[in-house]
Amino acid sequence: MPALRPAPHRRKVKSKLSQGVKISRLGVRHQVTTLGEGARPPVRTGILHERVMRAKLGVSAERWDEKRQEYNQDLHQSTRRALEQVSQDIGRSNHDETMMDGWEDVVENIDGIGCPDNNREISHEGGEYLATCEYDRHIRMRKQKDGRTWAEAIHRRDQAWQAQMPALADAYLLWKHGGTRIETSGGKFILSVMGIGACMEREFSHISGVSHISVTLIHYGIISCNPVDPSMAFEVATLEVFLPHVSIQAWVRVLCDVCKINYRRYLREQFTRAFDTYLDLLRHVDAKVKAIMSHDTPNWRMKHMCPSCCHKLNGETELQPSMLLALDGNNSLKRLARSGRQDINKPFLSDYYLTVDQVDQFKDEVRKRPKAKGPTLWQEAEQVDTTYGDTTCTDRWKAANADAVKATYKEFDESGIFLSACRHGFIILIADMVRSGELAKYPLAHLNKIIEVYDSNLAIGYDIACSFATTVKNSSLGAHAQEKQLRFVVPAFHGYAHNRRCQLQWHPLYLHGFGIEDLEVCERIFKGSNALASAIRHTSRFHRHQAIDMYFRQHDEDKYELLSTFLYNNYAQALGLIHDMPVAIAALTGYQSVADTHYQKWLDQERTYLASKEIEPDSDIARGQYVTVLTKMQLAKHMFDATCQFTPPTSRVRAIRQQAWEAYEFLQKEVMSIEETLDIAERWTPGCHEWEVAMSYNKIREYQLAVDKLEGLVVQRLFELTKANLSGTGYKLRVHISKSLQTRCKAIQSALKRYNQAAAKLVPPRPRLEWQEVVEYGTLAEFDLLRSAAREDIRKLPWADTVNRQVTIYSLRLERAKEEIARLNVEVARLNTWIHDSETEYEMQIHNLQAHKPLLCEELKEQLQTWRRLNDYHRHKLKALFALPGYTGSSEIGTQLGTTRITIKLPSSSQATHHGVAKAREDDEDEDEDDEDNEEMSRLEDYISSLSMNDLIT
Hints:
Blueprint: E1 21-23, E2 29-31, H1 47-57, H2 61-74, H3 77-90, H4 128-143, H5 150-176, E3 184-194, E4 199-207, H6 213-218, E5 222-224, E6 232-235, H7 236-240, H8 248-259, H9 265-293, H10 300-303, H11 307-310, E7 323-330, E8 335-336, H12 356-360, H13 392-396, H14 403-410, E9 412-422, E10 427-434, H15 441-453, E11 458-461, H16 465-474, H17 478-483, E12 487-489, H18 492-495, H19 500-506, H20 521-529, H21 533-536, H22 541-561, H23 563-589, H24 599-612, H25 618-643, H26 651-678, H27 689-724, H28 731-761, H29 771-775, H30 781-788, H31 802-849, H32 854-882, H33 910-925, H34 927-930, H35 932-946, H36 950-953
Parallel strand pairs: 3-6, 7-11, 11-12
Antiparallel strand pairs: 1-2, 3-4, 5-6, 7-9, 8-9, 9-10
């Protein structure tokens, strides 16, 4: 007989076994009760074991087999299969019982159970296997920890959803469009369902031919929270009305309150899962529709995002520039670095987003410039890259690289977004700003894609376009941008914070072809998207991208609905300028016509003058510094001589004398260095000609520095006033801005006092500035005139005359209004043709799909009904535009460039038409409210550009 193996290490076990069973020291199970009515015989593991047990219990073989069969019927099917397999492994002798007289002990192995070495000895008494099963079930499994991570669970759940998604999409279309009657298989199950107004357990019937419960639920308009064995589900109607800028927790609390149940944290997680599945389902259905419509080609959305920009027509007037676009960054849509780490590797695919690789290919395009020695004078809230050219305008829009700002970026994985849009507000591209501000790589990545997709002769507005143009020229995109005739412009509002020379070169008011467009469209977009910030601050990367994508898709749908209103309002505004500007010019010039003014000549003269005074000569700076150092050296010598007269000197006098002597020696070295640089043979003294010239220059320089200080404070005040008046500004920020304004006003008064003192020292003295004049300054043109007037008196030059400058602005507005009319005539014709072409395209596809794909056909019909509802409003608005006095465009439907017109008429929905006309009438009543943002920006621009002339006009 083989040697018995030592018993495994004993552990203290709580008795969770069934009654009548005990575990011996060797782990052998013993049956201690009689086999009554409720007793279950042990599993049959061998003839000897069976005979011994029958003898002990006094049960016949027939009774034994009967109880065993009853016991096996009560077992789960999987358990019976496992026991049968074990019985086959152990084996059962088919020989006659008489052959067992020469039996001997056999050590049998049961893999995976009991001992660490996966072996278990089977005694003659038996029962070890059942004891081991009980032990493994109640002890070992109870203490075993699940090594799977939450991220792995999310990944497996997503894989399960993706495997079911085709069937889910078909079931969703069948439920949505009322397909054939559902045939049930008779089986039923109960599930908790939450909707708007009710949360209850509902009974559902299994559907024939459907293998997944989640697919079955879709047929009832229900979306489950899990792909397999769900415990809860939500109605589709509940998921449809959820808005991305509302937090899920707040929304679920609202549902619980409406359903009159208590809020529980797990409901938030369940709703998130159901909503993710719902959005994924909609994207899957949308992909099917795009494939049918051939809208799934690369860059299709970018090429057709805006009807008025992209739907070019045969024979139309060529626009210069062909498209007006805008770029800008926003730091509101941040995401904390420690949030949502479970699905960090789960990508979200969107045709709006630029990938990280597409952005990072430009990270080394621009070299970093050296750090500034001190903080910049102007510090705007937006963080702009320091890699742009070293210009005054760039400094005004660059925040200092403070440690606090850097620490802020370390706390966020995504510190905001950088987007591009057309002048009508349609989104082109979005890129995440990752742990940084507006680095140069973000606009370069946008330009790379824009140049690739769109035609040549584009114009792009950017806050620091004056320096960014140099960045593009020196980058790898320089040659391609020049080939595509890419133009840059500073948006109108931001342009007034640039210096005068920059405005004359980059501001849209002074450039041909831009019409009355201000290109501040990104600021209007951010005004709405900022509401999304609080809802995505703590989400995962996937859910942040999903929320942003969802918001901007809805944003583009809203912009399409308001497109005809935009065109109508701009046309009416341009006609108003054409009517009003000649009258204003005549009032200023004594009833002269616009042709009699020489505003273009004045602009050229001003550009020439500012270019000649742009760079301060180094020699003048050195001479002024030389006189300043000489003055300080003489003062130090005088102080040293004065302290030498004290006898006996005190300790304090000796300290002052030592400091004066050290300062004198240091300044003497500086004087000698400057004399060597300027080649001065004889040291200047007070009263000599060179001294007087340098002192005069220093007075001018002091005056200019006072203007710079005053200008910086006024610009900061202007920004803070603007932010305080924005409807999206929170209460705390308003209070902070109000306190800052109080401090800023005191600083402006001090800077004004310093300016007036410096102005009085000039020869001849410059006019004093009063407080009321300064606080009404809205542009930097006035400051540039003050700065230029320090060197020579330019007030008598024609281009510097205040009346002529205002006449120039009015004349430019008149010219831009005429350009706007020409652009709108083209854009209106494009929209009018798009309405016809888009409906025709849907009608053709519906006609082709009616026979073999009825569900997709119904989906296209529903989308067509939506398009018709919106287009009916556009037709109504365009009809009003065509009736405007002074409209010079065409009202005919054109043909898209490179195509011929095709018309297929299907029965239209009278309900949709009626609703569209009704909505048009309703929107006509609220037209001012619909265009509130445009009018607000227009009023603000007018204030900035003309407020300084109020006293003259009145």
